Amino acid sequence: MPAISVTGAQWGDEAKAKVADAINDEADLVVKFQGGNNAGNTVVKEDGTKIVLHYLSTAAVKNKMSAIAAGVVLNPGALLEEIAAFDDVNLMIDPRTHIIMPYHISMDMAQEHYRNEKAKAGNKGAMGAIGTTHKGIGPAYKDRKDRIGITFHELVSGSKSLEEKIKQNFRLYKKVIENYFGFSMVVPQGGNFGASQQHYTEVEVIERTMEQGKKLRRYLNDVSEEVIALLNKGKNVLFQGSQGVMLDVDWGNYPKVTSSHPTPGTIPTSVGVPLNLLYNMENVGVMKAYLTKVGSGPVATCLDAHCWPVDESRSEKEALHIRAKGHEYGATTKRPRRVGWLDLVQLNYACKMSGLTQLAMTKLDVLEGLEEIKVAYAYEVNGQQTSQYRAWDLEWLANARPIYATLKGFEEGEVSNAKNYYELPSSAKNLVSLVQGYTNVPVTLISTGPKASQTIFKGFKGF
After folding, report:
1. Within this chain, do residues 407 and 450 fall inside the same structural domain, yes or no?
2. Are 104 and 148 in the same domain?
3. CA distance linking residue 396 with residue 107, whole number of Å
């Protein structure tokens, strides 16, 4: 297959980077097609060293060519920090990619602060704070829709018109942020979530933006044109998404979503590729053997008392086990993720919505040490059993009570030491069979630990 997509089948943080890294050896190009630095790509080397990337794909670690498509929103400073960790990177950035500016980050923080005042009582339904990463993603996408955004082409041009555009936008944002939200023009110190706040001025933004444009100019390239050319030559292209389908702005749990479309169906418009070149694309959906979610909104199988932020004094013991063993803290924000049992009702919705042809199950080893493992196969809502997933109705989902199947747990080492599918314990194979039978999508890759060598291929269809 000349094209493969790797996307999240849950709420993000499914270890997509590990899966992409495991299958990209034969890729001629790896394309990030949406999102921004609100999601992290974590790769663990064989010596245990962790590499956390946001804009650069795992292809950068192997010095392979990667691309940032028009559907991404780009923070130039964050990208330059990533590039600095390498001697060089093989990278191309589409001229149509939109830029995240400091005032976008300030607006993101101001809006979340405002929403948070309404969100003191649990955050299960549609109201209250979203739980954004304070990276300015939503406001940057909004500017694109409002046709006042700054593109990568404009950034690297360094023209007088760019300076004027920054001035107009800065002053507009300043009025709204200070006069309506009662907030300040600040960003987190060093760009880190939860850090102390740093003030900035219009002049500083202009000077910094111009300097960043000069440093990034060499990476300008028409990603759409390059991808089309490669696919027409029968070359291999891997499209890597951020977040997960349940955070899709249209098909996820709106409004508790991101501001882009983390589904394979949006690759044509996010990258600029004709549909006929993708008709036989393999769509790999990455799923954990359990659930996690950063941010508010309903998760039917939540083991953290449906609280956001997480209050571990109210968490069930299984949640504490999974969060500790799975290191379930955001790669971008470091916040503890909410934890829940695997939900087949949600997963089946994701498979249909994303047109998944294969599933990659990750973090199966994290369930080692639990006596029992539960899997939701239906909900009870208002006294009625259903297998429907109403992604759009958050109050309905908040009232959904999961109906579980219970499987025997795994002993320590039973999964993480397995070298092939046949060495997995029977209860792990039962879990795989349950997922395949319910979704009618084969599980073709199983991650049994954080290292690349801890990956089992089970009939995986690659390039």
Report:
1. yes
2. yes
3. 30
pLDDT digits (tens, 9 = 90+) for 251-288: 999 999 999 999 999 999 999 999 999 999 999 999 99
Nearest CA among 21, 7, 12 for reference residue 297: 12
Does the residue 137 lie in any domain?
yes
Joined together, the tokens standing for residue 204 give 């500083």
pLDDT digits over 91-104, tens only? 999 999 999 999 99
Amino acid occupying residue 441 = V
CA–CA gap between residue 259 and residue 152 (Å, rounded): 19
**Closest to 273 in 3D by CA, of 233, 207, 223:** 223
Q: Is 200 among the domain residues?
A: yes
CATH of the domain at 204: 1.10.300.10
**What is the C-alpha to C-alpha distance for residues 131 and 216, in angstroms, rounded to an integer?**
31
Tokens standing for residue 23:
């299958």
pLDDT of 119 > 60? The answer is no
Q: Which of 431, 408, 427, 426 is nearest to 288 (CA)?
A: 431
Report angle CA 198, 255, 42 to the nearest 5 degrees. Answer: 60
| CA-angle at 116, arms to 113 and 117, nearest 5° | 100
Average pLDDT (282-297) is 95
Q: How long is the chain?
A: 463
Q: Which residues, including other chains, have CB under 8 Å from residue 307's CB and lie 6 or more apart?
A: 122, 123, 314, 338
* pLDDT category of residue 324 using cuts at 50, 70 and 90: very high
pTM of the entire predicted model: 0.94
| Contact (Cβ atoms closer than 8 angstroms) between residue 24 and residue 10 | no
- Give 87's contacts (C-beta < 8 A, 6+ positions apart): none
